[in-house]
Amino acid sequence: MTQPFSVPRRLIVAVGGNALDPAEGRGTPEEQKAIAAATARAMLPLLELDNQLVVVHGNGPQVGKLLLANAAAQDRVAPQSLDILVAQTQGALAYILAQAFENALREAGNPRHVVGLVTQVEVDRHDPAFANPTKPVGPFFSEAQAKALAAELGVTVREDSGRGWRYVVPSPKPKHICDVSLVEALMCGRTVVIAGGGGGIPVLRDEAGRRRGVEAVIDKDLTAAVMANVLGIRDMMILTAVPRVAVHFGQPQQRDLARASLSEMKRYLAEGHFPPGSMGPKIEAAIRFLETGGRRVIITSLETAVPALMGETGTHIVHDHETEGDDEAAAVAGSRLLRTPAALATA
User: What global pTM score does this model have?
Assistant: First the structure.
């Protein structure tokens, strides 16, 4: 059972790219804005908290579609490099999300501001990910469709966790968040900051300090972990498609995890419970965050974000010593849980 959780004064929330991309439909501007509005309504209790809030969003569906358009139109329009495509999705999605967040806040009578920052993230030129693309992006295809596209357009495809076939691109680890002081300055003024979108625009820096883009897509959860550690944010929430992380996922012995220690999650990851390109990077990000100064990671769905923050659902990953005495604490947890968004705002 999860434990009661007082609302942190600083919080970083990582939102998947599917928060703006329909599972069904074409992903038209109207569809994207409607989904963003629904995301904003679901996150409104978080947006209204009197705390410092940073939001990092994914871009996998969107940047994959741009890659497809890039390849399909290459005889008519000069193809753009992947770093520029990441920048395009970062700006566009930050605009749509910021507008949706502010609209939801204004409808609730809240004057809080939201801003999106174009964020570059430095990576290591020697990262082995450049030689082994693993990051799934874009729409799902059947195996036959994917292999036909690969042959026609020269892209790399791979099966994605039993859900279909997708493009895969290099996904190096984030080393440094460029201009992170700007995020902190805005955050400290109680502005909701959308930063590191799509994991950030991947760049390399030379000995003279000059930066240049590189073709890759950084995992947004890993970027959120690095950003949180730099900013002194000790609590991270990762919003995904499921309310809780599970071991033996999709099998008869599947078991949802309500509360788990750092060492337990490291063991589960080593045992192969969390596949790359799916839950794997989220668990890796949680481990990295906790090992470099974080206190708690909550993994849950967008729809259950508020109950999870209140300790009622979600997977809560904490340091080993925090799980000691869980059985005794569970017996009294119900009497200590926060129950309403109003209680969250005043905690």
Answer: 0.87
